[in-house]
Specification:
It contains two helices and two strands, in the order αββα. It is mainly α. Strand 1 and strand 2 form a beta hairpin.
């Protein structure tokens, strides 16, 4: 569960940097704002799907 949230947060940060790059028209080492936005969105989707998988298919333990 930690990894899903971590991947999602990294995706958010990459998207935020991509937005900054897109607004200012920067490009560093071939990474433009469009590419960063695409990578960040893909990471967010992967993190969200992993989180949904963990929520719906996690084994339920009763410690009572």
């Amino acid at each position: 569960m930690k990894y899903a949230v971590l991947i999602f947060i990294i995706g958010l940060l990459v998207c935020a940097v991509g937005i900054l790059f897109k607004i200012t028209h920067w490009s560093i080492f071939g990474f433009s704002g469009n590419m960063m936005l695409s990578i960040g969105t893909i990471l967010q989707i992967i993190g969200g799907l992993l989180l949904l998988y963990k929520v719906f298919f996690a084994k339920k333990h009763n410690d009572l």
